[in-house]
Specification:
alpha/beta; Rossmann fold; 2 domains; 12 helices; 35% helix; 20% strand
Length: 368
């Protein structure tokens, strides 16, 4: 392999304008085609610049010694060290850099991607097949990069000025009989930290809705099973809810809860929701609030957008409790931010401390 290309661009080609705070992007991929196409897409954007490109993980690490990007596009399947092996070193060398892993659709690719997300990679983007670098792909890629960078300092200050702080933190509600967790971008790492803090004798069932491509969900379930040291089951129509188990929304439908023959069971729903997500956190929270009469602990972890906010309102109206991840530990403080700024959360903390707060408020019936 040759030496990595490197260029710093503060005035991207084709824009004619200057952005004082562009998203600084590094691309690490052994494919010259991928590096070239990604670079071309990014250079066309006024608010983005290419900090560096590299054709191996080793070269990418060498570039990090010179300057840390805001966002790194990292291929996992490369000769030599490879992206997965390099990821912990990347995060240690540049802890403020958000890593967007580029993954294949293969089974091995899914396993490596979910592993990378559990280690702290912020988000994933499927590598398209030949001819797949179209406008839809470009729009999705650029949207993910912007979300991972977050607002500029001036935008954040303006937003803070326009948002009134909640008068008080929401109080803890009814003792929970079930825990429901919603997460998206950056959520897998947070989920692992949260679940590892939950001891085996905490016996309440746990429902999880995580935004992920459907092909990744089975691998994700296996990983959560290991992290939580309890059985993880993909939700399906009519699945019985049992204590001590984790139930995970499939990628093709919303996880909902129903009563059937006097029992509480899982179901799947496919209706459009305001957030546009599939699966969405809102239907899970909303149906739990009704079926469990508010005896629910809801948790929102790192994620883009506002999915889960409407469901949180329903959950609290029924007497439930909401917990939210804090901004400092989120890859994207979107979903937890919404409930935090509305004063809906009883605690706003890092994932492991959030688990401690939930456990402390769970009551005697949550343990065996």
């Amino acid at each position: 392999m040759g030496a990595p290309l490197r260029s710093e661009i503060l005035k991207p080609a084709g824009t004619g304008g200057f952005c004082p705070d562009p998203v600084r992007v590094m691309i690490v991929d052994d494919s010259l085609t991928v590096r070239t196409v990604f670079s071309r897409m990014i250079k066309q954007e006024r608010d983005m610049s290419i900090l560096a490109t590299a054709n191996s993980a080793e070269s990418g690490l060498a570039e990090l010694a010179k300057a840390a990007p805001d966002v790194m596009l990292l291929d996992l399947e490369m000769p030599g060290m490879g992206g997965l092996e390099a990821l912990p070193r990347i995060m240690q060398a540049a802890p403020q850099t958000k890593v967007l892993v580029i993954s294949s659709l293969t089974a091995d690719g899914a396993e490596a991607t979910v592993k990378a997300l559990s280690l702290g990679a912020a988000d994933t983007m499927l590598k398209p097949r030949p001819g797949g670098f179209n406008e839809d792909y470009k729009s999705s890629l650029l949207g993910k990069i912007r979300a991972l960078k977050g607002p500029s300092a001036s935008d954040a200050a303006a937003a803070a000025d326009g948002v009134a702080a909640p008068a008080e933190v929401q109080r803890v509600g009814k003792p929970p009989q079930i825990v429901a967790i919603g997460a998206s971008t950056g959520g897998i790492h947070a989920l692992n930290l949260f679940l590892r803090q939950v001891p085996k004798n905490f016996d309440l069932p746990i429902l999880v809705t995580q935004h992920l491509p459907p092909s990744f969900i089975p691998v994700f379930a296996q990983q959560l099973e290991m992290a939580a040291e309890r059985l993880a089951i993909l939700a399906d129509e009519g699945t019985m809810i049992e204590r001590g188990k984790i139930y995970i929304a499939p990628g093709h439908g919303h996880l909902v809860v129903r009563k059937s023959g006097g029992r509480r069971v899982l179901g799947l729903a496919y209706h459009p929701v305001k957030s546009g997500c599939m699966p969405s956190v809102d239907p899970m929270f909303e149906t739990l609030a009704e079926v469990y009469d508010g005896h629910v602990a809801g948790v929102l972890l790192s994620g883009m957008g506002r999915d889960g906010t409407d469901g949180a309102h329903s959950l609290l109206a029924a007497g439930g409790t909401m917990y939210a991840q804090n901004a400092e530990t989120c890859a994207v403080w979107g979903m937890p931010r919404a409930v935090t700024e509305m004063g809906l959360a009883a605690a706003v903390l890092p994932p492991a401390e959030l688990a401690d707060a939930l456990l402390a408020n769970a009551g005697a019936d949550a343990w065996r």
